[in-house]
Amino acid sequence: MIHALSFELNAQVARTSDPTGAMHAREVVLARFNDFCGDLVTPDSKESSFLGVTEGVLLAEEAHERGYETESWVLDEGLAPHERDWLGQESCLRMIAYFKDADSARSAMSWLLREYITPFPPQVNAEEEQDWNATWKASFTGIEVDERLKVLPPWSEEWIAACDSGKTKGIIAINPGAGFGTGTHETTQLCLKILVGLGDLTGKTVLDFGSGSGILGIAAALQGARVYCVEVDPLANENARENAALNGVTDRVSFSETIPEELKKGGADVLLANILRPILIRFSGEIKRCLSPNAELVLSGLIESDLDQVIDAYQAGGRPFTITQDGKNEWRSLWLRRREG
Ligand SMILES: C[S@@+](CC[C@H](N)C(=O)[O-])C[C@H]1O[C@@H](n2cnc3c(N)ncnc32)[C@H](O)[C@@H]1O
Question: Which fold does the domain 178-337 belong to in CATH?
C-alpha cells in the first residue's frame, strides 16, 4: 500500500499562528512542506518515507477553458518552469503527497494543519500501489490513423512481428516518452492524414516545427523526405531521436531547438506545425519565410475560435494561400497551399 495525503493550497496561504496576518506564497509553503517531509522515515527500515508531491498537472485545453493563454500542452509546475506563472494565477491547486507508511502521511498532515489554514481539510487515504508505467503501457496499444498508417508502441506484438518479417511499411513505432505525440491526439492525426496523402516525398525537405516525439517528422522521413525536427524541449528531442532510430530513419532526420538557418529562405517543401495558436501566430512570419514557392503548410493544434486569427496571420502579405480545413472532435487543422487545388 501507498499513503496519499491530498490537500489544496491557494496562491497565498494563511498561517495558523501569525499575529500580523502575513501569508506565505504557495511556493514557500511547498518548499517548507518538502523540507519537513524529507526528514520523515519509515518506522521499520528508517528509509525516507516521502515519495514526492504531484502538483497542478493540467492540460492546455483546460487552461484555455479558464481563459489563460498558454504555449505548452502539458502544464506541470515541476516539469515546465515557464508555466509556473500560469499555475501561479490559479487560485487553488490540488496536491497529493505520497508516503511509504501511514504514520509519515499523518505526520505531514498534522504539520500542514499546525502551520497553515488550507481551503479544505487535508485527507490521508491508503491506495493500492500500482506500476503506473506498466498500467499505462498495457493501455497503449497503438492507433490506426487510416488504412495507410498505423502508430504502434515498440513492445506491441504487431510491431515485433512486422520487424521480424521486414514488413514495417505503413507503420511508425513510437516509444512514448517526454515528447508529445503518440498519435492518439486528434491534432496529430489530422497532420498525419494530410502527410500520408502527400505520398512519396523523396527529394523533398520537410520541417516539423514543434516535433515532440518526432512522430510527424518520422512519418515524413518514412515517405522519403529529408526532415528537420525543431523542438524547444531537449527531453522531447531525446525521445524523438530514439524514435527515429527505432524506425530506421536516423540518417534522414536532424534535430534542433530552433529553426536551422538553411531553411529560413524558402528551404521547406512541407512544413508541419502542430502547436497552439499563440505560437503559430507568433512564428507566422518565420514559418512563411521557410516555405519554398509551392510548399505545403499544415497547421494543427487549433480549435474553431482560433481559425480566423490564424488565417489572418498567414494570409497577411505575400501570395495568398488556398486553404483546406479539416477537423476531428473539437480540433481543427489548416492545410495551406500557394497553388490551385
Ligand atoms: C502538440 S506538440 C506536437 C508534437 C508532435 N509534432 C505531434 O504532432 O504530435 C507541440 C510541441 O511544440 C513544442 N514547442 C512549443 N513551442 C515551441 C517553439 N517555440 N519552438 C519549437 N517547438 C515548440 C512543444 O514543446 C511540443 O512538444
Answer: Rossmann fold (3.40.50)
